[in-house]
Amino acid sequence: MAVLVGKEAPGFSASAVINGGEIVENFTLEQFRGKYVVLFFYPKDFTFVCPTELFAFQERLQEFKDRNVEVIACSTDTEQSHWGWLNMAKNDGGIKGVTYPIVADTNKTISMNYDVLAGDFGWDDNGEMIAEGELIAYRGLFLIDREGVVRHQLVNDLPLGRNVEEAIRMVDALQFLEENGEVCPANWSKGKGGLKATHEGIAEYLSH
């Protein structure tokens, strides 16, 4: 798997559904330069684990916005599929009420560039192209800073849902580093002190 941390986040231009029901073309990552971005991939619309994640991000969306973070979801479904799911009530298995952008990676290039595409293409004995495994996205999450650089990535297998609290914690850690110049030790959370990246700083921190 590709490690994108420390590298510029792969750009893209694709159709997306924004504001809970408006389909737009040429939705880009570049438009959010100067803001932090949490870009997360999920496998499929109209499934079971995926709506729990999408609603979990929506429930905490204001906390992300308060931190100057844009939340963007992406799957390999079409924009029409996204739109249909967004217009279906929660009690019926839909995700109505989700307002952040959901990108349609219909040609699967975004998932491939972020190296979260499950399955692959191959060839059979007749020389014909086949798909090996289902070509959908793993549960990848990427924290992108204001300069467009990936600072954190996490990839879960398809059945394993993510912890939105951890995504917020990583945003806080990055912003703490930028504001204070101190690194964040294990189990750090907002409100705790950091440590200076020196032997003396580590010794002082561990002595508490």
From TrEMBL:
Functional description taken from the UniProt entry: Thiol-specific peroxidase that catalyzes the reduction of hydrogen peroxide and organic hydroperoxides to water and alcohols, respectively. Plays a role in cell protection against oxidative stress by detoxifying peroxides.
Catalytic residues (UniProt): C50
Database matches in CDD domains: PRX_Typ2cys (cd03015)
Domain Thioredoxin: 3-176
Family: Belongs to the peroxiredoxin family. AhpC/Prx1 subfamily.
Protein name per UniProt: Thioredoxin peroxidase
PANTHER family xref list: THIOREDOXIN PEROXIDASE, THIOREDOXIN-DEPENDENT PEROXIDE REDUCTASE, MITOCHONDRIAL
Cellular component aspect of the GO annotation: cytosol
Stored Gene3D superfamilies: Glutaredoxin
GO terms of biological process kind: cell redox homeostasis; cellular response to stress; hydrogen peroxide catabolic process; response to oxidative stress
One Pfam family cited in the UniProt record for this chain: AhpC-TSA
The organism of origin for this protein: Parvicella tangerina
Keyword annotations from UniProtKB, A to Z: Cytoplasm, Disulfide bond, Oxidoreductase, Peroxidase, Redox-active center
Annotated compartments: Cytoplasm
